[in-house]
């Protein structure tokens, strides 16, 4: 049995209510345990959280009963019930807490557990060498964080499949009534929540969902909302491609880093990729960002923005998912009800390696007149460009003036790529040396007449 | 600031045209008196800066402008005589062009304020943090960094969700998942005025002052120091200082450490509003003030951001009182470093013995709850106040809570409290008077 929620609180100052809401410090002092346990010999330990409650919470997790072969990370393990339960089901478990609770170690010994314990702050985990985990549990931790969004981004980067996030919420009884409103978080400067000093932010259910989505998970699903807590499943992948798609895949037109318009990305920064595509006619009229299924490398990414361009095509923006590996990653886009479009590639943290560059056949981009640029657009063929060259890292110069590189083609049979570039209307004209630069290497100059 | 000698008017003309074409946010007044008109007029920009208490003469001051954008505030601070560093999260061509045209010496760097450190950027008398906070995913972290980077004052201008008429309302922050705020993707949070003030206080500033709220823009001055005026009322006495969580003497600027002061004061109704702690020269607002016993108070505060590794003095005052005794504590020093403590030698002081404060067992002191230590020493001046005396345990001060009169052989008894989290083991204990200290003796701290 779950303890029934107390009768509705009388109308008091919100802060008074929050302060007293869930202050279990006295009960914890009396019982000595936060989690409850039942040992194999039938011995029961009654903690602040009833065993039935723990089991019910576990039963809400969307995970198989058998966790053989899975790595589970339990952040904020406290006395360890959820760690030991995951291990009992076959998982290899790592428990993390910022405090070493003697209860945890006592119970680990009594249960003969092999769970690994690490005394770490959540923010220290990415550099602690723990690796990645199929499942990450973040139960009752989020509202203790001064940087809740950073915490969720870290959790997302640690999880390869699923994170289960449970948090105090400020609007448990009423959250359905104000869906669609801008979500909020309360801030607790001192002991304003539960009389405890280490509570910082209380999200609404909507804020919890939004924070999880914005942290980089593909899908976020609210599993349960109780009076003052919510349980959210955060998936790193989309549901499977439909077996019988009801519409055609998107027609992918282009793909670019929104900062550089290139195909290279820096994983240490918060970077976004823009994707231009067309949708089949029946979907085009009713397309929303919720229908887009982007996969970058091994992870799904939700669309953060969708807008129609002047050309009638769509432009959607996606965040590079946390934990995307360095190197070439495939980018695949589909609709909820379609298969994937043919993949494209982006480069993450890939160094630019250039030995030498050669340029041939510089000509006007419109008239193709050799060695003369009449229309303000130049075209040429360049050899030696690396695989991850893009419009941002390839630079063209006429004299000292940079040109804007607008297009780089695939290499032809001779290894030369077509490069198009536009002259600044104010740039000097006349007989000038033309050259291409990439990765700190410059091509020999070719004399060109700009008119 | 000297304008560059601009002789080639044709070039300048072209540059100005470029500037106009680039689409400016800030307006920039050129040395010639011409104005590159931005979306914000010079009048609006001057009105924004006028919300803050910035002196007209900033000679000798270092200023950091976070999120400088086109640079008007940076150039204005430089015009007033400051040495200015402008940072932004991406290179803005307009800033660089304006700097060139103004002949400005403002230093310009690309940095992410959520990841910047004082080690990379240095510390600044004045930090401008205008129109940036609501663009950040981790506002508390950014404010802690802003506090760390400022040695005197940080001036925060942010979007707020209200008109500022209820600065004591429950603190609430809106979260913008995508383009909910002004249709722009790079807005993340919208605090109400109360929440903005609470977050600034939490970041570690001594005083946070709401200057104004105009059209959903709050202007907040955040001070690292208490006002210089010191009262003359009876000073409080610090009885013990410890880490609020581990309850020992370990303090780190990298951790989010809190400091507990156990204080004696006859004042009544003390609260976070009338207790003024100071650590390493920085004021810091108490997060909590509790009565602990008759005339006893527990004062908790954040270890102020920006303390370099080393020894730092801590003291506090209440209402219009004089300062308490001063207690030395270590930040980011190892036990070995603390034992090589380098106070000036105390002439004429001599330790006779150190005992447990309750059992008087010699050189063996019980650690843990209610632990205390007694020392017998010779050479203290006749009418010495307890506040001038401390026992230094591995370099950190245990303030004397009582100093006896001299006994028949001239020895004085000095009693001090031990934080309950100090781990058992052999420690070095010295006697300090006004900061000068004796050679240390070994004392065994034993478990309860």
Q: Can you describe what's shown?
A:
The complex is a heterodimer of chains A (451) and B (448). Chain A is of the alpha+beta class. Chain A has helices at residues 14-20, 25-31, 51-60, 81-88, 102-110, 148-158, 205-214, 281-284, and strands at residues 37-38, 44-45, 71-75, 92-97, 116-119, 133-139, 159-168, 184-187, 201-203, 219-225, 229-235, 251-257, 264-265, 272-278, 292-296, 299-301, 303-308, 314-319, 327-335, 344-348, 358-364, 372-373, 377-383, 394-398, 401-408, 417-422, 430-438, 441-442, 446-450. In chain A, strands 21, 22, 23, 24, 25, 26, 27, 28 and 29 form a nine-stranded mixed β-sheet that branches. Chain A has a seven-stranded mixed β-sheet with strand order 5-4-3-6-7-11-10, sandwiched between helices. In chain A, strands 13-20-19-15-16 form a five-stranded mixed β-sheet, with no helix packed on it. In chain A, strand 4, helix 5 (102-110) and strand 5 (116-119) form a beta-alpha-beta unit. Chain A is elongated and about 90 Å long. Chain B is of the alpha+beta class and 448 residues long. Helix content of chain B is 16%, strand content 36%. Chain B contains eight helices and 28 strands. In chain B, strands 20, 21, 22, 23, 24, 25, 26, 27 and 28 form a nine-stranded mixed β-sheet that branches. In chain B, helix 1 (9-22) runs antiparallel to helix 4. The radius of gyration of chain B is 27 Å and the shape is elongated. The N and C termini of chain B lie far apart (67 Å).
